[in-house]
Amino acid sequence: xxxxEHDPDLRExxxxxxxxxxxxxxxxxxxxxxxxxGAVLPLLLLALSDVLAAGARLGAMGDVVPVERFxxxxxxxxDLDPLRTALxxxxxGFDDYVEIADPLVGPDVASATxxxxxxxxxxxLAKGLQHYEAGREVEGLWWWQFSYVSLWGERAASALRVxxxxxxxxxxxxxxxxxxxxEYDALHA
Length: 189
What we know:
Oligomer: single chain
Helix content: 55-70%
Number of helices: 6
Shape: elongated
CATH topology: Four Helix Bundle (Hemerythrin (Met), subunit A)
């Protein structure tokens, strides 16, 4: 690879982030395409958790500064409207949610969509991946780090909370007699 061959730590971080970006994009695209019937929530929980862990690593390190002080054109933006639309259909009935806009500033409530959050993360990861795959590894790493801190980290964390909440409702919102019977079966198996 080109510009970070001399820094093995940055190269490792960039390679890892590129791998996580690809995995997230693949998983999200497959889920949106209907390839994960019955496993939508667990797969997206895992994909978001993994990419958030990679993003946290970027947030914890010092600022990545590209050689050039401007962002070179990465090419045309990836069209993520089909992904957003497919996810919106998939999450029909629980796509919209509310959250605290900025918990450090005050209790103002904002609205968001799960499909929009997942597509926002995909868009930021895809843009960094365009730079990375064009041989501008530092630019890709800078983009992932900057957009993690400024946008996709928050959107991914919000989406993760919504997915976890949906999973909890699916698994825990059962009739008392069904839960008691399952508990009895588990204890006596």
